[in-house]
Amino acid sequence: MTGSPARVEGTLTSWDDDRGFGFLTPASGRGRAFVHITAFSRGTARPRVGDAYSYEVDRHGDRGPAAVRVSSVG
Predict the structure, then answer these.
(1) Are 10 and 24 in contact (CB under 8 A)?
(2) Are 12 and 44 in contact (CB under 8 A)?
(3) CA distances (Å), origin 19, targets 14, 59, 72
């Protein structure tokens, strides 16, 4: 039995509102994860650069890490 994936806290460092995606950078500053508007929890305010989020990283596929199950911090 495996535990749930570790959550990461980071900041939205870029966002294209017209296309509904951007990138989250973890607090460690190492790497970044693609994030799509559909990854945000229901009821989360529209994403804005500089906002803090908690998320899980999905490393499947060949497109690099993607943020999933994203929720606002604070």
Answers:
(1) yes
(2) no
(3) 12, 22, 20
CB atoms within 10 A of CB 51: 16
Q: Beta strands of 2-72 (E only): which ranges?
A: 8-16, 21-26, 33-36, 52-58, 66-72
| Residue 21, Cβ density class (10 Å: 0-12 exposed, 13-18 middle, ≥19 buried) | middle
- CA angle 23–26–32, rounded 5-degree value: 40
Token duo for residue 73: 């911090």
Whether this prediction's pTM lies above 0.70 is answered by: yes
Reported as a single tens digit per residue, the pLDDT across 32-59 is: 999 999 999 888 789 999 999 999 999 8
